[in-house]
């Protein structure tokens, strides 16, 4: 940990799943990476006081708030971390930008493209650093693949096929949550899981041109956890779509919470003119790679164990072969964010990436209704 590093005071909103994952990342980051600015766990916010105090004590947050407006208005906060249900991303980001706070936002960015663009515009106008959490870009094997693509090892990409499977909605007794209500969540499996693989496609392949989708909700009512009856499910359990990219590549995508037996199964295959690659989150330290340059008799997919210190992010961790896990993706992403804030530089992925991802999400939903291909309007970055 660098003693001369500046301090970036973080205000985190959300105390549950992502609240814990982000707290863990802020806590560990300065112990492994030598940074020009270290995060300070200044204040955490959640409505439920018991949950708030639990997280606050678990990770030694200095302060706590039960009202997000209070947090966003505090003078002693530099960075607002938005880890709440999706309907709050927009109001918190707008208020945060007004107060000159740097912004970190969980995916999906917003409830719709208009909100997402307004958030991007507000952050740019305020001149703050803004970042979207698309943490899978920071898996070392995926960062390595990005480098291999830029070096021409895959060639012209023709296909990107991705699935993201979970099974927690197979159980009809699974209760009604904010994730089942389009007013709080926007969409279901689509915004939650397709957002990740759409972003990976933009990262590795390029911009989308058009999409054609199908959405399904299999269980239409679920029991409310407070015993007050049933809630109407207004979000998708599963969304599949085909895609055409601007560079001519074809894509297929399926996100479902109805994938019996699959817990958090994210897998993609990418085929190019010179090579191909396969990634599976359950084997996240590995990248499968096929090169057309290999000699005929020994040609075949090889498995690269991405744990060498020369490979992305690994030099901060353990000797080769000592694998890392899912939580490290957030630590890697936060490293980029801290450096960006301290050097007053733009970071990637940012709110533009969140907005472009949201455009694809919305176009798929429109297509599922229109039963037609829907185009994604090309929009440049704000200059
Ligand atoms: N990057 C990832 O891999 C990943 C994984 C899961 C969730 N997410 C995203 O993270 C966000 C949060 O998801 P989660 O799974 O942590 O949800 P969660 O339900 O576990 O937690 C939501 C939190 O928001 C807080 N909250 C709700 N309303 C609030 C309000 N009015 N004021 C203050 N706090 C409020 C709740 O108290 C709770 O602490 C979502 O946008 C979700 O899509 C990202």
Structural key phrases:
383 residues; alpha/beta; Rossmann fold; Dihydrodipicolinate Reductase, domain 2; six-stranded parallel sheet; 10 helices; 33% helix; binds nicotinamide-adenine-dinucleotide
Question: Can you characterise this structure?
Answer:
This protein folds into 2 domains: 6-135, NAD(P)-binding Rossmann-like Domain (Rossmann fold, 3-Layer(aba) Sandwich); 136-324 and 334-348 and 357-370, 2-Layer Sandwich (Dihydrodipicolinate Reductase, domain 2), CATH 3.30.360.10. The protein contains 10 helices and 17 strands. With 383 residues, it is α/β, with parallel strands linked by helices. Helix 4 (89-98) packs parallel to helix 5 (113-126). The model has no long low-confidence stretch (mean pLDDT 98). The longest helix has 20 residues, at 351-370. The strands form 3 sheets. Strands 16-15-14-13-7-12-11-8-17 form a 9-stranded mixed beta sheet. A 6-stranded parallel beta sheet has the order 3-2-1-4-5-6, with helices on both faces. Strands 9-10 form a two-stranded antiparallel ribbon. Nicotinamide-adenine-dinucleotide binds at residues 13-19, 45-48, 68, 83-86, 88, 106-107, 133, 135, 192.
